[in-house]
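Newbie here. two chains, one complex. Structure please?
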Amino acid sequence: MDLSIFKISKYTFDGKKSYENVSILVYRHWITIALSMIGLLLALFLPLALYYIAKSFFANYYNIESIFWFCYLIYMLLWWFALFYNLTMYFLDTWIVSDHRIIDSKQHGFFKRKVSELNLAKIQDISVEIKGLIPTFLDYGNLEIQTAGTEPKFVFEQIPHPSRVKDIIMREHNKYVEAHKGDIEVHELSKPI
Amino acid sequence: MSMDIASIIDIIPFKTILAGLLFLIYWVQAFFIIYHLIRFGIGPKPKIIALVFFVGSIFLTMVVFVVLGQFAFDFSGAGFNFSLPNITNIK
């Protein structure tokens, strides 16, 4: 049985070109999901707390133990789903920096997905914004890429180590510009028509 | 041949319908999560998460069905008198 997809990764994605190499894959900072995880953890124990409070009040009147545990199991099933729904949205909200382009992939619910890309040659300016106490301590923030003309900015939101990512993008941009004089895709020139 | 509401309710397999509905709704949603993680997830992390979710879902579904199997619904009495035997007045 081949279990390689769980161990190694070539960082393949939809529309990846054969000559394209992924330099960095960026998710949002873990703190952005940690808050919802804490909320979910509280939601897991809240019914238990309420049950034990209710039990202390109504113990003399009703025995609700078995119905509670049955309902709690169904609740746990829903909780399990909610937990992984959050994780799915977190892991599908990514930015890919390859040696040819930057891809911004956003998932809003199961059936709304937005993918935008930017050619490295179109980068004009990159700025990093780290605002607030916690972002400063944990080193996360926004990275904005200004493109040519009136096109909207390309924004990496709440990413960890934005300055490091900026350096990687600049390095890839310089390499790309060096290798693609006149913005001609050299890899596709050699392809037979 | 006359059938009152109570006897009709007795015939309807509520537990099976409830279990079927629960199973269907949950696993359709679970499929969406697993599909998205494997189809759109980049790198090994989303695949590992999909596997953990799948294994956990199987385990939880099995536990819910086992408990549901042991649970008794009592639809007896006049009209639609829904009562659960596990809620007992102990006073």
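Moderator note: Helices of chain A lie at 30-58, 65-91, 133-138, 162-179, 186-189. The beta strands of chain A are 22-26, 62-63, 94-98, 101-107, 113-119, 123-129, 140-147, 154-160. Thread marked as resolved.
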